[in-house]
Design a protein that fits this description.
Blueprint: E1 6-10, E2 13-14, E3 20-24, E4 27-32, E5 39-47, E6 53-61, H1 89-104, E7 111-112, E8 125-133, E9 136-142, E10 149-151, H2 160-176, E11 190-197, E12 203-209, H3 217-223, E13 229-234, E14 245-252, E15 256-260, E16 263-267, H4 277-287, E17 298-304, H5 310-316, E18 319-325, H6 329-335, H7 342-350, E19 362-365, H8 373-383, E20 387-392, H9 395-406, E21 412-420, E22 430-437
Helix pairs in contact: 7-8, 8-9
């Protein structure tokens, strides 16, 4: 098998990038343009020499998935942000259920979705790469595997507030002939932008440059009328990390006031904001409840990876003492605690066998995509709390963590797992798992 060959295969699953995944002999074939169940003639454009994998595109489909639709977004095919957009929502939901069971051995009791909506205009937080040239600047995202940028103007999954702000930013930056940063040549001015909205017309905009000096950022900020506040960050590192540092306010409000699951909190320019707060509120609600809907209560609860403090506030309604742990400085400040790694936090608790936190009634954990990992799982097994509720955005890392927590050396038993469709049009899924001590 070599590039240029044409083979006929049937896709059985979808990759997280939205390619159909098929098999041909010993090879795994990733096919752009095929949905699960569709058979197509595929022209190969890449064959790996390190492992049995190849990539190609369908030049002809021999049958059609019943949920296939024309993608509503004109950018689809260049932008990689919504790989499932050629499937209707009900088919997306069924695919996600099947993938969780088949690929990760995660059986869910149900997939929770918003009762209303078309799966569009839900993102309250969006990052963009700045590309183009002075006078013809565009905001977009990297095409997979390249430094080419796909234009995302008028993005259909962004909240309308963000779309308005992005349109004005492009218009004013082009009028000023702001120079986009060239990633390959490592020169230029404006590099990334980050939009956040409260969903009620207030937008917080962070402009990110590669250098701590900029010929245009302050003047550009003064010309913008849509954002309620503008901040300036610097990211001089190589790679695709779009978060800036060395933050400085330029004008207006530097914080948004938001409400998730009935908890009010504030989010600054670099603070993490869930892209779909409406859907994530349902996951947070279930995270601090039991599967049937009851509310656990008791003396002590631990809130690991507490973020902006939504779960901490919800837990404080039912527990006499709630101890949050968060390593990101801005979020830790909102919680009124010092930034600390979960490993250090749990080590201190385990080192004090007579402390009130040594035998918690409930541990809640919402780790980043990499999951808890071996060290934290080992510490939680030593802690042996009465209940352990986990939230995860990565089914693979959740599966690995559950194996560590419920296996022969684990201290817990899995009760139930539930999924939440927080990012329609993508393969992303949020999961909540409920465990009890053995």
């Amino acid at each position: 098998m070599k590039p240029g060959d044409t083979i006929t295969v049937m896709a059985k699953t979808l990759s997280r990038h939205g390619d159909g995944v098929a098999h041909h002999g010993d090879y795994e074939i990733h096919v752009g343009g095929l949905l699960p169940g569709e058979t197509g003639d595929v022209e190969l454009d890449y064959v790996s020499k390190q492992r049995p994998r190849a990539h190609g595109n369908a030049v002809r489909r021999r049958n059609t998935h019943p949920g296939r639709r024309a993608a509503p977004c004109s950018h689809h095919g260049r932008c990689n942000g919504c790989p499932l957009m050629e499937m209707d929502l009900s088919s997306q939901h069924e695919l996600k259920r099947q993938e969780l069971a088949r690929e990760y051995d995660l059986e869910i009791d149900r997939l929770v979705v918003l009762e209303e909506g078309d799966g569009l205009h839900y993102r309250w937080s969006a990052k963009r790469v700045v590309d183009g040239e002075a006078g013809a600047l565009v905001l977009g995202s990297y095409m997979r595997g390249t430094h080419n940028v796909a234009d995302m103007s008028g993005c259909l999954v962004d909240h309308p507030d963000i779309v308005r702000c992005a349109q004005e930013l492009v218009e004013q930056a082009n009028a000023m002939r702001v120079e986009p940063y060239d990633e390959l040549g490592e020169h230029g001015d404006l590099r990334y932008v980050w939009f956040k909205t409260d969903g009620r017309g207030q937008v917080l905009l962070t402009l990110i440059t590669s250098e701590p000096t900029s010929p245009s950022v302050r003047a550009l900020a003064e010309r913008l009328t849509v954002p309620a506040g503008v901040a300036w960050g610097v990211n001089s590192t190589r790679g695709n990390d779009l978060r800036g540092t060395s933050l400085r306010p330029i004008r207006g409000s530097q914080s948004l006031t938001l409400d998730i699951a009935g908890v009010e909190f504030h989010c600054g320019p670099l603070g993490f904001l869930q892209p779909n707060p409406t859907a994530i509120a349902m996951a947070y609600h279930d995270l601090v409840h039991v599967p049937a809907g009851g509310v656990p209560h008791g003396r002590v609860a631990l809130d690991l990876y507490a973020g902006a403090g939504v779960t901490t506030a919800l837990l404080r309604e039912r527990f006499a003492q709630v101890l949050p742990c968060e390593s990101y400085p801005e979020s830790a400040r909102q919680l009124g605690i010092e930034p600390q790694l979960v490993e250090e936090f749990l080590a201190r608790i385990l080192g004090n066998p007579r402390g009130p936190a040594r035998h918690p009634d409930l541990v809640v954990a919402n780790p980043p995509r990499g999951g808890l990992g071996p060290t934290v799982c080992s510490q939680l097994n030593q802690l042996h709390g009465s209940r352990l509720h986990l939230m995860s955005c990565n089914p693979r890392s959740l599966r690995d963590d559950l194996n560590r927590l419920t296996g022969p050396d684990g201290a817990y038993r899995l009760i139930r797992t539930r999924a939440f469709d927080t990012l329609p049009q993508t393969a992303h899924i949020e999961l909540v798992a409920w465990l009890v001590g053995k």
